[in-house]
Amino acid sequence: MLAGEFRQRFSLQTAAAGGAIAATDKHQAAVLVPIINYGDTLQVLFTQRALHLRHHPGQISFPGGRIESGESSCAAALREAHEEIGLAPDAVELLGRLPLQSTSTGFTIEPWVGLLKPQRSWILQADEVAGIFEVPLTHFLQQENRHLFSLRLRGKVQQLHAMPYQDKFIWGATAAILHRLCLQLA
């Protein structure tokens, strides 16, 4: 799938429609789902969270974090991507947002999808990000690469998404967000 087809299939509320939710409590977060346009292929960019973090240490995620007081979710996603990986906000073509995603730790995440050109380099915030990597979008579009499993968390059995790729295990809210994106693109 090329960028033009991606844009066409991605028929969600556009970024121009406004900034969605502003923070009302400490458990609202926003992430950027960065899709890198290499011309002949699209790659999804992921971060691996630092091991010392309180929430989700070492897990694979999208750049993002809490929405600050008075800040829109869109602005929070772009700010966090800039802070975590050095992605300039004006380098992102925001296409829109996906539905809210709840986490087992009580957060509500608003995912924003953005296209960007390949970057010369990334500036990782070592306090938050242990590393970054890319995966071809086509890998996730194949249903056989998207899985659902049950796990007992906080005394309840929960259904969680998982999308392994090579030596990476993408699961939980990140995989659920990616699954929704794939459904949107189908």
TrEMBL record:
Keywords: Hydrolase, Magnesium, Manganese, Metal-binding
GO biological process, one term: nucleoside diphosphate metabolic process
PROSITE patterns xref list: NUDIX, NUDIX_BOX, NUDIX_COA
Source species, domain of life: Bacteria
Family: Belongs to the Nudix hydrolase family. PCD1 subfamily.
Taxonomy of the source species: Bacteria, Pseudomonadati, Pseudomonadota, Gammaproteobacteria, Chromatiales
Protein name: CoA pyrophosphatase
Entry cofactors: Mn(2+); Mg(2+)
GO molecular function, one term: coenzyme A diphosphatase activity
Boundaries of every Nudix hydrolase domain copy: 26-157
NCBIfam families: PRK10707.1 (NF007980)
